[in-house]
Design goal:
With 119 residues, the protein is an all-alpha fold. Helix content is 82%, strand content 0%.
Length: 119
């Protein structure tokens, strides 16, 4: 049986693969949104595993604050803000390919760090 935490972590992995595929195809908007989606799904996975609220976009930030506070890890904030910039790029389309690629790298680092918060 798949749990909601498993659903979110599996979706994270799927979105990362798709993000890199879109980047390779030159579709920067979709690469950006899948990168953001991967980050958001992993935050939701961690929140779900701890029984924390995570139903809305707004809920992601307090979850991240809780995680960063617990380990005094400001790097989580920096990585998450890079992911959020990808979401903004999906709406505005201002980032060049190199910036989207760097943003996806930050998302991968964020996802790796957040996996350590899963039980």
């Amino acid at each position: 049986m798949t749990t909601r935490t498993d659903y979110h972590t599996n979706t994270t992995d799927e979105f990362l693969v798709k993000a890199h595929g879109y980047l390779a195809d030159g579709d920067l908007l979709q690469a950006s949104e899948k990168g953001w989606g991967a980050a958001a799904q992993m935050v939701q996975a961690v929140a779900e595993s701890h029984g924390w609220r995570h139903q809305t976009h707004r809920d992601l930030f307090p979850t991240l604050n809780r995680l960063a506070e617990g380990r005094a890890n400001e790097e989580l904030h920096r990585l998450f803000h890079s992911a959020n910039a990808l979401h903004q790029n999906f709406c505005e389309g201002l980032m060049p390919p190199e910036a989207v690629e760097a943003g996806l790298g930050a998302v991968e680092q964020l996802v790796d760090r957040l996996r350590s918060y899963l039980p």
